[in-house]
Amino acid sequence: MSAEIPASREVPQENRFKVWRQTRPFWAGLFTMIGGLPIAYLPYGDMRLGNVTLAMATTAGAGALIIGVLLITLGLTMWFQPMVRVFAGVASIVLGLVSIPVSNFGGLVIGFLFALIGGGMSAAWAPAPPVEEAADAEHDGQPEASDEADAEFETAAVQAAGIPEQYEVDEATETTIDAKGGRNSAG
């Protein structure tokens, strides 16, 4: 399911967001976007306490704004293009690390931590395997094998795999004669 195709029409209206959310790294994108907000805002924000204005403005305000906007963009990319989730996750981690010296210790460490957590979640996320629907424990009218039979088969397979087959070849060919009985002459 891509970003252009909405959730299936068979899915009830109240479950469409849930289905959409489960097919992409939703929480990773949300954490990454939340991390971009303080990184972008703090160099430009100010706070008034009575007649005193506290400003966190730095000389690297433009760099902090770029990093914050890129993190928000990467979060949206995680949501709408989940195929590039690993790239977006690694880029979020790198931008979070770069925000430490550029943007007031990574948005007072809050934005830095959210960017790292979101990037790590995105890089680690994998789509769920397709679910096979089975109404009963029977396949093709046959009951499934018991757990004991499965365990015995696995034990026999492991024991057989431990002994390699050996073949004897008595034929001498030109390549075996040239090999001088398996010895190599180096030098």
Report on this structure:
The protein has 187 residues and is mainly α. Helix content is 54%, strand content 6%. The protein is built from eight helices and four strands. The strands form two sheets. A two-stranded antiparallel sheet has the order 1-2. Helix 2 runs antiparallel to helix 3. The longest helix is centred in the middle third of the chain and has 20 residues. The protein starts with 15 loop residues before the first helix and ends in a 9-residue tail after the last helix.
Anisotropy-based shape: flat
Rounded mean pLDDT is: 76
Largest sheet: 2 strands, antiparallel
Order of helices and strands: HHEEHHHHEEHH
Alpha-beta content class:
mainly alpha
Q: How far from one another are the termini?
A: 62 Å
Rg (CA only) = 30 Å
What is the overall number of helices? 8
Q: Going across the major beta sheet, what is the strand order?
A: 1-2
Strand content: 5-15%
The count of DSSP E runs of length 2 or more, i.e. the number of strands, is 4
Low-pLDDT stretches are none
Query: Residue share in helices?
Result: 40-55%
Key features of this structure:
187 residues, flat, two-stranded antiparallel sheet, 8 helices, two-stranded antiparallel ribbon, single chain
Give the secondary structure arrangement, pairings included.
Layout: H1 16-22, H2 26-41, E1 46-49, E2 52-55, H3 61-80, H4 85-102, H5 104-108, H6 110-124, E3 138-139, E4 142-143, H7 147-161, H8 174-178
Antiparallel strand pairs: 1-2, 3-4
Entry summary:
The chain has 187 residues and is mainly α. Helices cover 54% and strands 6% of the residues. The chain has helices at 16-22, 26-41, 61-80, 85-102, 104-108, 110-124, 147-161, 174-178, and strands spanning 46-49, 52-55, 138-139, 142-143.
